[in-house]
Amino acid sequence: MTLTQSPLDAIHRERGASFTDFAGWDMPVRYTSDLAEHHAVRSSAGIFDLSHMAEIYLTGPGAAAALDYALAGTLSSIPLGRAKYSLILSEAGTVVDDVIVYRLGEEKFLVVANAGNRFPAAAAIRDRAESFDCVVEDRSEEVALIAVQGPNALAILEATQGFSAEGLAELGYYRCLPREFNGESVLVGRTGYTGEDGFELYIDNAHAADLWRALEAAGAEFDLLACGLACRDTLRLEAGMPLYGHELSLDLKPVQVGMEKVVDMSKDNFVGRDGVMAGVSANAPRLVGLQSEGKRAGRADYPVHANGRTIGVVTSGALSPTLGFPIAFALIEPDFAELGTTVTVDVRGTEIPAVVVPLPFYSRKARS
Amino acid sequence: MSIPANLQYTSEHEWIRVEGSVAVVGITQYAADALGDIVYVDLPKAGTTISAGSIVGEAESTKSVGELFAPVSGDIVEANQAVIDSPELVNSDPYGAGWLFSVNFSSIGDVMSADDYEAMIAE
Fold first, then answer.
1. Considering its fold, how many domains does chain B have in total?
2. What are the entry keywords (chain B) (predicted)?
3. Rounded mean pLDDT of B66-70?
4. How close A32 gets to chain B, by Cα (Å)?
C-alpha cells in the first residue's frame, strides 16, 4: 500500500526524521529523541505535523441540528469561536470516534476526526446529516494541521513573520479564531493533545510548508523543537487523554471510559441514545489510571492481574518521561477500579505492582 | 550510521568484540535508533550461563521493547552497571560506554562482518 505523504514531507526529510505508517500516512515518529521532544513540549515548545487528522466541514442552516443528531453532545449550543470535545456513537452506544468540533460560523462547523477513523467518521456524519439542510465536505487531503504546543507557544506565534497573532493572547482554552498567514486563512484553535498550553493551526496544504518554516524560524529563540508522533503519545498519556483504538473503541460505551458527561441525554434524538440508555453490564470493564514504581512499564495488551487471575488489560502504557515512573491506562473489572486498589501488571512474565490513581497523571496546573 | 569495522555483527542487530576468551556484547546504532530513547535495560547477571540464540534480556524504549539475544554461548562475566543506571548510554554511545554485557565464551553463534551487516540493514 502506498502511504499518503504530508504536505510537510519534504521538511521532515530535510530534518532527518524517522517515519512511521500512521493510519496510512507516512508521518514523523521522531526527529532525534522522543525524550528530548517530550521534555521540550513540557518546558519550552514543540511543533508537530498533524496533517493526517481528518477535517470534515458542515455548512448550512441545518448544520447545527445535524451535529446534534450525529454526535453525543449538543453542538448547537456552543457559541461562535468555541470548540467542544465530542463523540460519534454507534447505534449500540459505543464509540465510532472521538472528535473536536469548532464552530466557525452560525451555520458552519469543522469536525476534526482521527486519521484512522476518517472514513467511518465522515460516512457516519454524511449519513446522519442527510435529512438536514447542510453540506458535508471531507477536506482531509486539502487541509494541513500544524500544532505548536508548550509554555512558549503563544510567544512563538506572536513572533512569527507574516502571521497575524492579534487576539491570540486573550483566546481562551478550547476557543478558535480565524487569522492570516501572508494573507492566507489560518484557523487557530487553542487546543491540543499534550496537556500543555498550545495552538493548532489549520491551513491549506499549499501554504503549510511556509507556515512551518516561519514558525520554526520564530521558535529558534524560544527553544522550539520539531516533535514526532512518539512523544505525542507519551504527552497525551501523561495528560490522561484517551487514544482511539486503545482507550476508545466500538466495544466500549462512554460510561466505561469516564465520558458519560460528553453524552447529552437531555437531547431527545441522537444516534446511540438507545444504546447508551441500555447501559452496561455490572462487570463491564472500566478505564483506570495505573501507576507503578521502578522503570518497567506495562504496555498495550499486557494482562492486569489481581487475586491470582486476570481482571483486565493495559490499553496504553509508558515510563512517564515527566514523572519518572511507569503509568498506564487499563480496562479492568469494576470491583478493582476504586482509587488506591493495588493490582499487578504482567510485564512479560514479571508481576509489577500497580495502584489505581486519579487521572490525569500530569497536570500543568498542579506544577505551577 | 556508524558500523565499526573491527566488530562482528548478528542478524539481531547486536555486535560482539572478542578480547581473548571474553566477548563484549552490545546493540548496534541501527537498533538503538530504531528503538528510540532507551529507558530500561534488563541484563543477565554475572555467572549466568547463556547459550547462543537464546533470549537473555531486553531493552525498553519509551515506545517499544527489544529482546536481547545471546550471540555466544558461555558464562556472563559482567553486566554493564553504567547502562543499567543510565540506559541512555546505549543511544549515545552504542559501541563504547553503552556496551551491555561480557561473556567468557565457549562458542560463537552466527556472526557477520561489518560490510555484510551494512548490506543487511540497507535491504
1. 1
2. Lipoyl
3. 95
4. 9
Reported ipTM exceeds the 0.90 cut: no
Query: Which residue segment(s) compose the domain that B64 sits in?
Result: 8-107
Q: Is A38 on the interface with B (CB under 8 A)?
A: yes
Out of B42, B60, B62, the one facing A230 most closely (by C-beta) is: B62
Q: Band of the pLDDT at A2, cuts 50, 70, 90?
A: confident
What are φ and ψ of residue B112, in 5° steps?
Answer: -140, 165
Q: Which of B82, B61, B69, B87 is nearest to A297 (CA)?
A: B61
Flag if A33 and B58 touch (Cβ within 8 Å): no
Taking CB atoms and an 8 Å cutoff, what residues of chain A touch B63? 29, 34, 230, 233, 318
Question: What is the rounded distance in angstroms from the CA atom of residue B23 to the CA atom of residue B19?
Answer: 6
* Chain B contact set for A296 (CB, 8 A): 40, 42, 60
B112 domain-assigned: no
Q: pTM for the complete prediction?
A: 0.92
Give the CATH number for residue B47. Answer: 2.40.50.100
Give B87-122 pLDDT, tens digit per residue.
999 999 999 999 999 999 999 999 999 999 999 999
**Is residue B58 in some structural domain?**
yes
The three cell numbers locating residue B56: 537473555
Among chain A residues, CA nearest to B58: A348
Instruction: Write down the pLDDT at residue B92.
Output: 95
Q: Among partner residues B40, B62, B88, which is closest to A234 by beta-carbon distance?
A: B62
Q: Are A274 and A284 in contact (CB under 8 A)?
A: no
Going by C-beta distance under 8 Å and a sequence separation of 6 or more, which residues neighbour residue A261? none
- Average of pLDDT values for A108-117? 98
A126: contact with B, CB 8 A cutoff: no
